Amino acid sequence: MQTIYLITTGGTIEKVYQEQTGSVTNLDTKIGQYLSQLRLPGLSVKTVHTMNKDSLEMTDADRESVLRVVEQKLKRPAPVVITHGTDTLVETGLLLKNRLKGLKFPIVLTGAMTPLGFEKSDGLQNLTESLLAARLLPPGVYLVIHSQVFPIDRVRKDRKHSRFVWTTAPATDEETKAATARP
Amino acid sequence: MQTIYLITTGGTIEKVYQEQTGSVTNLDTKIGQYLSQLRLPGLSVKTVHTMNKDSLEMTDADRESVLRVVEQKLKRPAPVVITHGTDTLVETGLLLKNRLKGLKFPIVLTGAMTPLGFEKSDGLQNLTESLLAARLLPPGVYLVIHSQVFPIDRVRKDRKHSRFVWTTAPATDEETKAATARP
Amino acid sequence: MQTIYLITTGGTIEKVYQEQTGSVTNLDTKIGQYLSQLRLPGLSVKTVHTMNKDSLEMTDADRESVLRVVEQKLKRPAPVVITHGTDTLVETGLLLKNRLKGLKFPIVLTGAMTPLGFEKSDGLQNLTESLLAARLLPPGVYLVIHSQVFPIDRVRKDRKHSRFVWTTAPATDEETKAATARP
Amino acid sequence: MQTIYLITTGGTIEKVYQEQTGSVTNLDTKIGQYLSQLRLPGLSVKTVHTMNKDSLEMTDADRESVLRVVEQKLKRPAPVVITHGTDTLVETGLLLKNRLKGLKFPIVLTGAMTPLGFEKSDGLQNLTESLLAARLLPPGVYLVIHSQVFPIDRVRKDRKHSRFVWTTAPATDEETKAATARP
Fold it and tell me: Looking at this predicted complex, what is its ipTM?
């Protein structure tokens, strides 16, 4: 039985529609309900809810607390998936990359452009991809979304087109090779 | 823009409910309709429908024709995903493995236990995973299903539990390493 | 709080896909799971599971047992909805019409052409309509399906087109008037 | 072939999630896409899009324009369904009731607490119910929602509980009898 840590922080992927206000907000975690729609034999997903915030509202202290949770979990090393708002996901990912040394497994950040369970949502796709990527990628910190894998220091959000894009031509280091080219 | 070839052969993943007979059969391809629910920026999925058969009804000639389609496509090398009935998926995969030499990209076979669009279906999960795996795995022939990656010569169907399992303890060759262990 | 009795007998509406056999069969009731997707404030739906059969396999004894359940429930009169296979739904409905006298509320039979939860299913539509019709129609026995209301002695299944049709031009009696035209 | 006029005005039922802003707004009509999920043999739904507004932003002039569309359509009398924001639905309905005389068919207003296509949405339920109610109710102006039928002058929104409730004990006039009582 393989273990994956799934750390939730909020973000669009977990937003819900509130009938009283007609707005979409981060209330309670809903990852578990959608995770249970996936078939994951031989996999033990250990979920940790750290906070439930729009990532534009995350503070430095919030990012530090995510880092501490990851550090704490990695005392028993296993792949990590982190669900996060897309607006500052890269910022949190870079913090993890810079502060965590000697990773034995990948850390995969993901999120969604439209909340889980809303028409045209990309949430379940991204969650599905992240769980698989966390088992296939070499150690490192990545964004996995829309069938793409980006080393966390090679990616930025293209807000206008609701997607992520490479910041520069893919480099040649180890993580980038894993994420991209073959022959 | 990266290319992936998606070759469909039928199987449970594409079965539909027929109202006149109350049975579930392979009629027309429906992969395209579900594929369009995924966000795949920067990816060009070129779909080829070869046949639409329950894999228990596939003949040797059918498998040869799948092989020929793959060979023909690989004249312009790119990752390949093949949707296939689960009952003889391994058989077709082994044929591909034995007959295709010098692969430059992975060939990923997948399928489903319950048809796409039926309650509790694993079809979209497996399709999502296969498209990502086809971009991440090294050259070789694999089954990708239920967040698992199996080299095609290491797997068998456990029909009773509607899943696939390792035939032996994972070996140490190149494909198996890609599919499994890190530290 | 208004009461409605919901009596289930099986039929396509409750069929499930069986992975081991690849067939669609009546196993356990699943109405409750879909009923819970509807908002029914002020309504108490009392569900009674009588059997879970393809209606082609229902015997005279089965129909008698449905009749007895209805009779028993109507000791405390309230509207009744019966979910039933469409192939012999009319037969059961006619038995109820002929044997139940002095109805104070309507009895609405319904079913589905495709099981609840399958792509393109009409099950939830028909269930939704039947619960409303049971509150609006005058006493009598009806089929409610596909936004149509038929007195049970005016309808037959058109199997080829997966729908129900009038057996004759709508008559002028009380039930037919309720089910059809105004000015 | 029976005709129903379906007049859309916007409201929560037609709201969409906007990825760039993370808000839920009235952009384009989406009724047609969901209407096509229903089976409506023998029914011709003629859809008229009048506006696409949150009903809190509807002006007196907007309500007059809805009235004019209804008047214009009723030159060829048929049942009418109007989709509308729930916050001022009753206000528009009362205008229609007061200004339209000699109705030959019912006018059914409906809406939703959560947009069509969002998890836990009541939109398709309400649309399904309204189309049926429009064929069953006597002439008059009604709200149909959550398996309930209210004469438009007997109902108010209970915003806190996301539902509608009777304003007073049901009266004894013709519309109220149609909406409620049996023995």
Answer: 0.93
